[in-house]
Prior knowledge:
13 strands; four-stranded antiparallel beta sheet; seven-stranded mixed beta sheet; 44% helix; Aspartate Aminotransferase, domain 1; alpha/beta; homodimer
Amino acid sequence: MLYLESLYSKNANNMKKSVIRELLKLTQQPEIISFAGGLPDPDTFPVQDLQAAADLVFAKQARSALQYGTTEGDNELKAELIKFEERQGVRLSPDNMIIVSASQQALDMIPKIFLDPGDYIIAERPTYVGAIQAVQSYQGRMLGVPSSRDGDGFDMEELERRYLRAKNEGLSVKYIYVIPDFQNPSGVCWSLAKRKALLEFAYKHDLLVVEDAPYREIRFLGTPIPSLYQLDQEGENRSIIIGMKTFSKILAPGLRVGWVIARPEIIQKLVVAKQAVDLCTNVFSQKWLAEYLKTGKIYGVIAHTCELYRDKRDFMCDMLEKHMPRRSDITWTKPEGGLFLWLSLPSFIDTDEMIHKAVAEKVAYVVGSAFYFDEPEHNAMRINFSYSSKVQIEEGVRRLAKVVKAEIVAHETGRTAVAAPTGV
Amino acid sequence: MLYLESLYSKNANNMKKSVIRELLKLTQQPEIISFAGGLPDPDTFPVQDLQAAADLVFAKQARSALQYGTTEGDNELKAELIKFEERQGVRLSPDNMIIVSASQQALDMIPKIFLDPGDYIIAERPTYVGAIQAVQSYQGRMLGVPSSRDGDGFDMEELERRYLRAKNEGLSVKYIYVIPDFQNPSGVCWSLAKRKALLEFAYKHDLLVVEDAPYREIRFLGTPIPSLYQLDQEGENRSIIIGMKTFSKILAPGLRVGWVIARPEIIQKLVVAKQAVDLCTNVFSQKWLAEYLKTGKIYGVIAHTCELYRDKRDFMCDMLEKHMPRRSDITWTKPEGGLFLWLSLPSFIDTDEMIHKAVAEKVAYVVGSAFYFDEPEHNAMRINFSYSSKVQIEEGVRRLAKVVKAEIVAHETGRTAVAAPTGV
């Protein structure tokens, strides 16, 4: 008899199945209104223009698009991305960039090249669940720093306090991981002052900073704030930022293409890691995206996406206003960009338990606890507003509010809450 | 000052840059005839039929093809692959399969879920360099078993001896990794008897076997031999085989799609690993391949590929016969399938040193030493016959023979060999 359990690695035993992706499966039941996933609205996909670009690849370079490519990534795609970054004020040369199989691959390879078992990274509390999973898969650990009360990035005093304590305890801290633009899950956007303060902190303590920026372009209110990469470049230019970007939120996640920008030595380490991970990113998709970027139409797509998501975000906030009980302990973020908002409920509500009642009511969210490495908070949830239609948003929020109200009533009357199933 | 070197993980320090991929870059110089890569002949890519299949995806399901997909893989593609496997005598259900971003991803994820630092796998000597890299990136180790004299798979006595010694020394051996069909690099195909013996060995010692089979369909001589997966299924059906397959050699490597077959528990572990590694494989490519497979045309492509490669392999063997010095210590394999042959030279020749002379003569190969985890043999090379044209094969072998002859002359006259550069 083969005892499989005894064969698995510690890494494997540390891997947690993504709550989100498991929820996604659950929520593929037809009648469920899901605010759980992080899916873009498919109305934003420029299908015709993408088909035209694919046709061009077939016409011009089908054979090389179907062949193996370099691990670093397609040169033409890199050239187009350098122009794309330049418009945002970031100057790059090709050796500052590696094309990856979307951001999650970068989230995997960065801990791979930096973390030994037991090593720490510093991250926001809460932070992206995919980053947590990747760090755990290398037996890394996270030192969580909460946001300031202003919701504009780290509480810098807490950062300093926790970092120094960790150093005093002899812990090995390898880098800081942040999502400064419309953070997943909280929707928070870091202020310029906080970005500068973080950079100063990193300079002072000789730390690398991983800047995960999948939502950066999806700003639908306010003015763009320079990225950490840009601030470093325009400041002391110490090249301590590793920037991560992806086409998943600005064009089409199905193509699984992203890019990492960093100093050449780090790019070279990532190239070596990628050789053993998947050799190269889908070559056809890279050449396809290069052709598409040449049309310049992506800027229109991004503008349209922002408009659409602002409208949906406004509508969702209106619906929350309309349907949620009015209590000072029920609040939600009103993000200026991105795909998510973060709903906090009274402390007596456990969203991990409530999810089953919500699914019985045919509405889904991601439990807030999924976004904590340890000591999770249990009274919050992440809600996506990009994917559902307005009709679904209204009905979904109505269902969600019904479940929340039932929890409150149950708490106040001392009974166990049972959401009345509507014929389920 | 940031000291990057002190930040890298042990994994990163264990990663070796792939000799092959570095050589590939070198050999992209226009005048070089490269026998180094493992590239299919682009003449085998069915460009028109693939474009028709892509058009169908755009017509029928563009929006879902551009959206996120499940980690397990596209259901339609899985259904088509189940039929594909059935034609080879392997019965599967969808939960026996995960779609991966080509074989290298499986080569990465399998050690990820099984190997802790210092754990061992058993592998052929020599074996595929990409497998070595992946195992090293998890600080795993390899116990190499040489082929028998008959060149038909493991020397089974050696396997038993080395395995038992490892067990006695208390080493943790996690699985056996083999490429039974037209092995990379040697071109060797395991006999039926050896496959059965390996299965018996694995049964007896409760070992998993990873069967890497990228070249299985590229058989151009002889009759197919059942895969280990099939032999297990038709025999005791203990589900101890993990099978790895890819479209890279039978259709188009640029699409980066492969599949792993195994018992459902292992597939589930791989799904969890893949969530943290890249979320899902390129969705467009999966749906595209499903459409293409539905046409049934892949069997014609494979037949044509086999014919073309047999012709090239024959021609390369003829050219070696014609140009190489006739000595009993210069031999090469004559594989019945796959993309490579293995050339052994006199023991006084070091192909690692000779490669520079070869490149000066504008011909390239992969040094044999790249295919050993430890104690490499230095007098061999891997030669690819699928990519070059016949004109290139003749000229390339002529150049290679010239370099080899110069080495022999230098050895016999006691001088250091210097290949006469032809105007370089």
